Amino acid sequence: MAMYDKGRPYVIREEPGLKTYCSCGLTEEAPYCDGSHNGKHTGKRPYLVKFEQEQTASICGCGRSANLPFCDGSHKQE
């Protein structure tokens, strides 16, 4: 399943530090970037997000969020 075929967010408890989230939708390690875009000329790079503290993140699983990589509820507007 491609990252943006999920149709709902990936809800993840993240530890502090830098995370790399997929922006191309080709990753096999969703929602994290695994480098699948390399050599495919997608024109996309991963989203880099730095968490200062442990927190729950909702990462977009439909590709329609206006606040990528985070979910904004766009998957509910069908």
How are the SSEs placed, and which strands pair?
Elements: E1 10-14, E2 17-21, E3 47-51, E4 55-59
Antiparallel strand pairs: 1-4, 2-3
Could you please describe the fold and organization of this structure?
This protein has no helices and four strands. The model has no long low-confidence stretch (mean pLDDT 93). The chain has one domain (3-76). Strands 1-4 form a two-stranded antiparallel ribbon. Strands 2-3 form a two-stranded antiparallel sheet. Helix content is 0%, strand content 26%. The chain is mainly β and 78 residues long.
Distance, first to last CA: 20 Å
Number of helices: 0
Please provide the ordered H/E string of secondary-structure elements.
EEEE
Task: Kindly provide the radius of gyration, computed on alpha-carbon positions and rounded to a whole number of angstroms.
Answer: 12 Å
The overall pLDDT, averaged over residues, is 93
Give, in spatial order, the strands making up the sheet with the most strands: 1-4
